[in-house]
Amino acid sequence: MTHRVRGRAAGRPTLPPRPGVGVTQRPVGAQDLGAALAAVRTGPQGPRVAAIFDFGGTVVHGFNPPPLARRMLRRGSARGALTASLLGSIRGARSEGEYERFLQAAMYDWAGVPETELAELGRQTFARNVYGHIYPESWRLVREHEAAGHTLVLISSISRYQVEPVAEELGIPHVLCTGMAVQDGVLTGHVEGKPLWRNGKADAVRRFAIAHDLDLTQSWAYADSAADLPLLQTAGHPVAVNPDPRVVLEAAEKDWPVLHFRPRQAPKATDYARTLAGFTGLLGGALFGVAAKAHTKQRRQMADSMMTYAADSTLRGTGVKVRVTGAEYARSPRPAVFIFNHQSQFDIVVLAEVLGTGFTGVAKREITKNPVFGPLMRFVEVTFIDRGDTVAAKAALEPVVETLRGGLSVVIAPEGTRSLTPRVGAFKKGAFHIARQAGVPIIPVVIRNAGEIAWRNSAVVRKGVVDVAVLPPIDVGGWDPARMDSEVEQVRQLFVETLLHWPEN
Hints:
Rossmann fold; six-stranded parallel β-sheet
């Protein structure tokens, strides 16, 4: 039975703690992430309430210094030196001396650099390095505050070139940070105005609150270090995140909630060994699966067997577990167009495990260059499209309708590309047009945690649990192909809602 897509789901289920998320230890005053989310959900609502997030240590974990050899090489490169200065202060200063050294280095290194160049380098640095260090717990808190209609603010003592790319990815519209003076589009090497350090942050928040008619007594502030105590004290709901010893004492004295987020570490030797075992399992399982059905001489049976054995062997080799809610919708109705949120290369393995047999996919043409997934996906008759050529992409999708009418389901990522964080990007309409023309339903498959198992730009697999929620099928037969924007957006919102309020088993 199919159901037409509806708007925002009525009611919100109680959130179970997520594996590996929330509290790693339980000191006095500590609470889990579920309690923090519930406090936001049941607290004051609306745009007059602010949610103010400190940047380093609260939203983004820091970086270990690069090896000495790499630092020496960077000194000989102007671009390398700029990148090092942008990355090195991401964690945020823990003392007056550290912050003073950051300002002196920034003013010296950035003087004479065009502002557009530094802004672009900041975006590139985020896409290459910083995205993987955003705490998923902070991402969930931001989404909960967003759902409550709160005014979202990201604040930092460092520069906008480091902070704004993170704010854009998290959907935080307001950024408060230390300004760098610019003249004729070039940085002068001086600070503009008062640095946002200690009381400077608190003062900036108060000015922002007056300008935007915010009620700070009803607002939230999240921060970690002693230098941020004035910031925490501006809000009626201060929350200590990954607190240093001075903040721990203050939180205990004033009964503030305390959250501990798990830092995202660089791969360890065991992660590389696990990845190698998974890669071996993938290839071995694929070959065994094909051989097991070779006697049938039926390509479809061999393809199904290949995917089943390859997925199972990869999961066993990597130690990754897949936990599924709504598994009944993964098997029926068939055929269907399964759409999923795409954050990791590991999504392919997860989908094969969840959906089993009787499906193929649509993927970007670039993946044919992948030495592993390219040949495997060709064998299971995936349709490859050129995202840069709209006409060619539409023409390539036409045979997919016949594939569906022939009884084979299709898997499509409507975002078109992998996201850097759990953020659900805009949906393209191709999957919905295909489903409507073929007379089959759309079935959303929401994947959580895959981006932590394998980061977007990394082939290394970490041990963990991937949660999958298969939602009820959606009948798109009555949609007007010329006016389906609102319906497609409602489906996207189902993904957003499910990630924020995960369904119970």
